Recover the amino acids of this structure.
């Protein structure tokens, strides 16, 4: 089994007001592309209810910087009581969404994603020794790398939503 | 022939509201045609409608021979509950669509040696060596990632047809 270590756990961004879901998803896609993550969408839920729309998107982009280490980021978008609203900006009418949205970020570091060092007990033991005593500085750098990526995404999302607040 | 599920999990879509059943099936068929996949509808179950609506289940498959050794397969399993016909007005025109709860799961898998060339004990052992040491890297790094991209493309088509919020406005 792949060793998965949580690096960032449940970093939340909560926003209530007008926003564009299209722009948020575009921001996530552009971020994935700029950081060279493979885009992977695990779940997409939309439910129309009497008091508004409920949405849930779950992205799991990943990146393999080496044949031993893999960065995985979970991005969950939860929106509730969403209603479409037409607003005028710069003389143009655009359709935005009004409601509550919560974005939850998790980041994991996976080692031995190729499952080469888990077939035999001796290999498993050697891997544990390797990770703890020989490869430790590189794993520490990898942990910092994925943490930086997740925090960068969080900052981008926060700054976009803050801009929306004043738009 | 060696069938393998892709390393990444299946993709799930849940939609509750208005949609068009005919457009949903057509979009998958059109996507398969545009991407040179063979389209098969292998299962359709229609349960007698109750007062809440009809229940429909089905499996759609798209297959494509990528090389003479490897084949991709995408399976879309859908299940619709409480499906009722409704009439909506769109762009000044009346349209007949459906309302209900749709759950769709798209699963990806690939088959190695679909032509079954490696038959026999010796050739099977040779095939295991081939898979484990010679083409493993190419399958993991190239073909699996390409399969993921194809699956994401199909998912986007389905979400666009269901008119998800990200494609509106």
């Amino acid at each position: 089994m792949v060793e998965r270590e949580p690096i960032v756990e449940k970093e939340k961004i909560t926003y209530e007001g007008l926003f564009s879901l299209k722009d948020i998803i575009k921001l996530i896609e552009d971020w994935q592309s700029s950081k060279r993550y493979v885009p992977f969408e695990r779940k997409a839920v939309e439910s129309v209810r009497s008091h508004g729309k409920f949405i849930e998107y779950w992205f799991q982009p990943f990146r393999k910087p080496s044949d031993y280490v893999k960065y995985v980021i979970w991005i969950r978008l939860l929106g509730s009581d969403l209603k479409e609203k037409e607003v005028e900006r710069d003389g143009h009418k655009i359709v935005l969404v009004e409601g509550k949205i919560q974005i939850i970020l998790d980041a994991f570091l996976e080692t031995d994603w190729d499952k080469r060092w888990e077939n035999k007990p001796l290999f498993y033991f050697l891997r544990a020794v390797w990770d703890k005593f020989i490869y430790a500085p590189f794993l520490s750098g990898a942990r910092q790398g994925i943490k930086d990526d997740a925090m960068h995404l969080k900052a981008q999302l926060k700054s976009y939503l803050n801009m929306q607040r004043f738009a | 022939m060696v069938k393998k599920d892709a390393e990444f999990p299946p993709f799930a879509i849940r939609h509750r509201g208005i949609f068009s059943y005919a457009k949903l099936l057509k979009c998958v068929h059109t996507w398969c045609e545009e991407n040179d996949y063979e389209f098969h509808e292998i299962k359709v179950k229609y349960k007698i409608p109750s007062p809440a609506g009809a229940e429909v289940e089905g499996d759609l498959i798209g297959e494509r021979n990528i090389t003479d050794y490897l084949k991709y397969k995408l399976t879309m399993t859908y299940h619709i509950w409480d499906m009722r016909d409704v009439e909506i007005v769109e762009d000044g025109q009346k349209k007949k669509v459906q309302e209900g709860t749709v759950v769709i799961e798209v699963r990806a898998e690939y088959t190695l040696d679909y032509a079954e060339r490696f038959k026999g004990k010796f050739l099977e052992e040779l095939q295991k060596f081939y898979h484990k040491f010679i083409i493993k890297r190419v399958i993991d790094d190239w073909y699996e990632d390409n399969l993921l991209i194809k699956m994401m493309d199909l998912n986007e088509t389905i979400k666009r047809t269901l008119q998800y919020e990200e494609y509106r406005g």
